[in-house]
Amino acid sequence: MTEQEKQPTADRDRTHKEAAEDQSSQETVQDDGAQVSTDSTTAGVPEAAIPELVIISGMSGAGRSTAAKCLEDLGWFVVDNLPPALIPTMVELGARSQGNVARIAVVVDVRGRRFFDNLRESLADLESKHVTRRIVFLESSDEALVRRFESVRRPHPLQGDGRIVDGIDAERELLRELRGDADLVIDTSSLNVHELRAKMDAQFAGEEEPELRATVMSFGFKYGLPVDADLVADMRFLPNPHWIPELRPFNGLNEEVSAYVFNQPGAKEFLDRYAELLRLIAAGYRREGKRYVTIAIGCTGGKHRSVATAEKLAARLAAEGVETVVVHRDMGRE
What we know:
Blueprint: H1 3-6, H2 9-26, E1 27-29, E2 35-37, E3 52-58, H3 64-73, E4 77-80, H4 87-95, E5 103-107, H5 113-128, E6 133-139, H6 142-152, H7 164-174, H8 176-181, E7 184-187, H9 193-204, E8 213-220, E9 231-234, H10 255-262, H11 267-287, E10 292-299, H12 305-319, E11 323-328
Parallel strand pairs: 3-5, 3-6, 4-5, 6-7, 8-10, 8-11, 9-10
Antiparallel strand pairs: 1-2
């Protein structure tokens, strides 16, 4: 009789139970059967080898595939429609590639509550492993999405027996929390494919990641608020150059219009104090790991006051080391 056979039954049962618990603590079996390591570090892989991760999500029809293709052209390893539960596994595989897969982009198509719950668990897992990850959320207006689905004569993935707008409403509700967690929100309502690629290039084409990137956007309130704005300033407290006949044909890029705007009482003081406020906010964004901010500057039509102010503010930010892109959303629409 062997020593194991001589061991009392209760002791043998306890030994088997402890072994099972040890194995269970090393891996978790997801509902779909995939095994994902839950260790706080990637065994045998130096932290420097863990790849950078970007998660691309957003509304169906808002341009996720275009954004993914852009990153692929920039040298990222792109995986489309990967189940969220497998994202940590993909990162581990990239970490074991000896530097061959340094940047991974995952397109996540959240079409159900279970998928969303798995994504939330995966993000928590990545955070515990100190993986650098960013979420890019593609947004678009209901009108633009309906138009796009109708143009390709395809149903919305979530509309079921209802209308396209029903599917859009259901998806927007599912993605509400994810949108709030996004590091970068891009509104594609008025963008074509080339303009979306230009935005992605501006954010990801650099060799080195800057501390903070800012988009300063002028807009007209009569055309609606930019849905991707993090901060909004209203310049309608200043006189409108539109009512000055010699200035009306020009826009805020014109030196005479800019001089008129900033010679008004309160204009220079606003710029000084708002720039000071942005320094405070930018410091907080950096501490929280937020790398992108969209600052929207509005006036009535988005032609004079907002354009002039956006240009001045962008110059201030650039002088302070913030990588800045200026966009005049509504200039020329009148």
